[in-house]
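FAQ: What does a multi-protein file look like?

Like this. Sequence, then C-alpha cells, then the next protein.
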Amino acid sequence: MTVGKTVRNWGEAAKAFGWTVSAFAAVFGGSAAARAAEAASAGTAAAGYTPMKPTPGIGMPVPGAMGLQQQFSPTGEYGAWIHHGLLWVMGLICLFVLILLLVIVVRFNRRANPVPSKTSHNTILEVVWTLLPVLILVGIAIPSIDLIAKQYKPAPKTALTIKVTGNQWFWTYGYPDNGDFEVVSNMLNIPGQPVINNGVREVGSKPWDGPSHLEVDNRMVVPVGEPIRLQITAADVIHSFAVPSLWFKLDAVPGRINEKVLVVEKPGVYYGQCSELCGAKHGYMPIAVEALPRPQYDAWVLTHAGGVIDSRVKAAPAAPAPAAAAEPAPAATAEASQAAAGDATAAAE
C-alpha cells in the first residue's frame, strides 16, 4: 500500500513537472519564435527595397535643353499647358505688331505718302483695340487663377504627411505618419574635388546614383499616385524647396510652416535644388525625390527603426464594454428586506 502510494505520488509529481516544462517552453519559445518572425519580416522588408536608378533626362536638367522639364504631376502638366499656350499668344501678338510696323514703314513713309492723312478718330478701330486686349487678358487670367487654386488646394484628411526642414546646407525629411522617423539628406561628394560633406560617400560609388551636384545620400521617398501633404519649414535661414519636373516650389521660412500638396504620377527619381540664396554652400543643397509604388514604399518605411506603415484605412473602433448588470428594482429590494426581517423575527420567537 505504502509503495503503491509512493509510486503514484512520484507519477503525479513527474506529470506536474512535465506540464511546467511545457508551459515554460511555450512561453519563452513562443517569444523567441515571435522575435525570429519579426526579425525575418524586417529582413524581408529591408531586402524588398533597393534605391531606384534614375532615368537619364527624366526629372533632371539636360545639357543644352530649352523650355520646361517634362512634368510628372497634374498641376505640372496643367501649368506646362498654360505656359506653352501663352508662348503662342505672345508670339502671335509680337508678330502682329511687327507686321503693323512694317506696313507703316513701307506705306506711310515720306516718299510713298507725301500728304499725310488728317484722320483723328475712328470709332470702330478704337473699340477693337480696346476690347481685344481686354478679352486676351481675361482669357489668360481664367486658367492662371485656376492653376493657382489647384496648386494650393488643401490636402485630404487621409493624405500622407511629410515634414521638410531646410538647414545650412542639407535637408531633413520627417515622416510623422510612419512612426515619426527622420531622414537626413546631404549632397554626395564629387570625385577629384574638395570634400563638401564630411563622412558622405562620393557620387558614382553606387549603381543607382544620379548626376553629380544633384544626387544625395538619402532621398525623400514618397508613394506614387497619392496626395502628399508637404509641410515645409527651416531651422536657420530662408530656403526654398523646388523640384522643377514636379512643378513644386515653396519657401522654407524659420518659425513658419508652409503647406502644399504634392502628387507624383509616375515612379521615378526627380531632382531639384534649394532656390533661395542661403549662404556659402547654397549651390550644394540638392533635392532628390524618389517616387515608389505603395508596396515598395512600405518596404522602405520598414527599413527604418520605428518605421510603421501609415494607416490609411482606420482600424474599426473597439466594441463597447458590456452593460453593467441591472440593479434590482427598489420595490424588489424592499420586499427582500422585509422578508429577511420577518424570518429573523420568527427565528427569535
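And here is the next protein:
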Amino acid sequence: MGCVSDNRWESFPEMFSTVKETKAGDEATLQPVQFPFEKVFPVSIVNSGHDPIWDAVQEEAKLEAEKEPILSSFLYASILAHDCLEQALAFVLANRLQNPALLATQLLDTFSHVMMHDKDIQRSIRLDVQAFMDRDPACLSYSSALLYLKGYHSLQSYRVAHALWKQGRKLLALALQSRISEVEFVSAAKIGDGILLDHGTGVVIGETAVVGNRVSLMHGVTLGGTGKETGDRHPKVGDLALLGACVTVLGNINIGEGAMVAAGSLVLKHVPPHSMAAGTPAQVIGSIDEQDPSLTMNHDATKEFFKHSHWTMNTAMVGNDVYVHWQLQFVQLGDWL
C-alpha cells in the first residue's frame, strides 16, 4: 500500500484544488477551483513528489524526541515508524478511539484503508492541520496538532466516518461517531476543507448540516434542528464564516459567506454574507470590512468596528412621562437592517 508521498501521487496544486459545478446551457460541468495558497497553505511546496507537511511532522518529532527522551518511544510509534501522514494519523486515531469491543488493530486497518484510497480525505487532513497552525495560537506545531489536539482528531474521525457512510457502511460509521466523545458530528453531515475546530468540545453538527470551506468553529457551537421535522432541517454555513463560542444555530437557515456570529448568540434566521450577528435571538448588528473573518479570527466588536456606527435618540410621550430610547445605527449595511 503506497503513501501519498511516494512517486505515484499527484502534485500539490492539483491535490489542493477542488471542483465547482457550473452550467453552460443545459449541461452542468465541473471546473477546478484553486485554493488560495498564500492564505490557506503557506508551507513551501517544493515539487510534485514532495509532502512538506509530512516532512515537517517528522522533523518536529525527531527534535521533540531529543528534547524529551521520555517521549521518544511514543513519538516513534506515533510518527517516526510510519511512511506517510495517512498512516500516522490512522495510528493516532485508532489508539484514541479504541475500546474493548473495538480493538486498535481493527480500527487501524479501517482508518488506513479509507484514508489511503480517498484523495479528498488526503487533501482535507492537510488543509485542516494547516488551518490549526494558522489560526490557533495554542497549536505549537504540525506534530502537536496530529498528536494532541482533540478538535483535529474529532474532525478527521468524522471524515473517515463520512466516507464509510457514503459507502453504505452506516453501522460502522455510527460506531465510530459514538466513540468521538468531545463532539457530535452526524456522519451524514457535509463539512468542507481547511476547518478549525477550536478546543473541540461540545460541538454538535446535525445530519443535514453543511459547513463550507475554511470555516472556524469555536467550542460549544450547535448546528441543530428545531424539533421533530424530517428532511433538510439543519443550518448551512458558508465559506470563511466564523462562529464564536457557544453559538447555537437552529433550523434550515443560511450563515452567509464570510459572516461572523458573536459568542453566545442564538441564530434563528438567515445571516447575510460579510455581516456580524449577535444576541439572543441574534440580530445583524454590522458589516465586516475584512473578507475572511475565519482566517483572521478577529471576533470582538471593538472600537474599530463601531467607528462605522452612530447612536440616535428617540423620545416618546406616554401620559406625562417621557421615554428615551437610544438606537445603534450602522451606516454600511444598507437594506439588511
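Q: Is there any per-entry metadata?
A: Some entries carry free-text notes. For the entry above: The radius of gyration is 22 Å.
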